[in-house]
Amino acid sequence: MTAFLFSCSGESEITTAKIEDSEAESSVSESDAKSSISKGGESSSSKKSSSSAKASSSSKKSDEKKSSSSTSDDDVLVVDSLEDLPNCTAKRGGMVAFVKAEKKIYACDDGRWSVEVETSSSSKKNSSSSNEEAKRSSSSSKVDVSSSSEKSSSSSSEEMSSSSSEKSSSSSAVSSSSLMGPGSEYGYCMPVKTPIERGERTAWKMVKSASLSAQVVLNADFDWTFADGTPATSAKHGNMSSDEITYASAGEKTARLTFTPMGSGSGVDIECAPLQVKGAAITGCECSASQSGNVAVGSTVEWTVSGCQSDGANIVVYEWGGGVTGEGASATATFAEINEVIQPTLVVSNDDNTSLQVECPAVTAVESNSHRCLARLSGECLLSGVWKLNGATRITEIDGDTLYSIDPNHDFSADPATLQFKEDSTFTFTMSSLTKASCVEEKTYGTWSIANGMLELRTRVGNTCLFHPTWNGKVKFRIDGDRLEMDLQGLFFLNSEMELEDVYTQSISREVFETRVQ
User: Fold this and answer.
1) Strands 76-79 and 96-99: what pairing?
2) Fewer Cβ within 10 Å of end Cβ, the chain: N or C?
3) Which sequence spans correspond to the domains of the chain?
4) What is 286-366's CATH number?
């Protein structure tokens, strides 16, 4: 059986040892584990060996680096059972522990202990076969990033131990070529908490990828650089969490992590998610819509934010998104399709680098009565509201397109004439005060009816100026933005208005009433 043993000394490293499988054999004790750990497999004789001089020199450099950022006792643990594990707090993030009762390695990450490496069992082997295996293993031993265990061998003779240690020194370190690559291969880094207040203590952590083994993490260097942070740097060995830092200014903060596995020769920069430090608080913002709930297709809705306050700072930016267009405290959107839902996104920012996301109400476009009018004339269409007549409308066909424009000589836009249909099948037409007709009656009253898709208007009172007391014809509807237009496709109420115009002008003039899409 292979077990991973840990040391809690300042030079914590992980190694492996062969444990002979036997019924009488008990779990590995903590004292046995500590006494079994060696410095990268080196023996006292290997340090004296001239053939390991280079390995010793490299080891000294590694020792110096680890001494300046050595792993504390909280970073590497050897415990008897799961109950002996301490709470996995943010401060202990990245800690690795060996649980003897489970014969498993656990890692502290995101507030919980999870299995990192499980030991595997092996059959009992005699001493001579173990020595032969040790020779083969030491000549080709190498740490693999995706491997869940490191392989090493033991020897009964000092000479074999020295030879094996020398080979292990040159080949057991993680190879640069096997580790180098995009930082995402190893994981990513992020702030422990975001957003935070100015002056609040926080930290950054690396979240390793599934392929990165605990052994590599335990023997790696983590060098952090914090923009605007105090302190500006942090160096850790075998710990995926940085030292605690603070920020004196508000805004979005970034960090850079250089991850250097043991023996790789150079580090890999890993991308970090940003941290937001709050400035002066923004409060009181409320977003509302000019129309709530369901609106008709073609409607234009305006969203407005109000009430935003920021003590000691000024509101400077309103950033709208989510299908609306606007600047400042308001934005609009026009609904083009049935069942279209628009819910704006809004971020309000001040000049102290504080940003606040404000929730705005969602509005949905539904099939309207106005859209049903496009398919079939009905009483509901006529009862949609008060119809305005802005004057005589000229109809021009150009390249298959129909263009509508108000005749400038008969423009009532400043005081439109109106036509209102009532549920009792009566109507009232009120002439504009801007009329140029020689014969004018302010109001005309009559009745209306629909038969075979045709509209019939029969005047009863105020019709002395009309050329004909009755009009019957097919009505054409169209939607233009948030307006529903009703085209009588001819003249009726404006015959007196247009009587002085030439025949051609009269032939291209129509009465086009409009109301709001509903």
Assistant:
1) parallel
2) N
3) 2-173, 183-277, 286-366, 370-516
4) 2.60.40.10
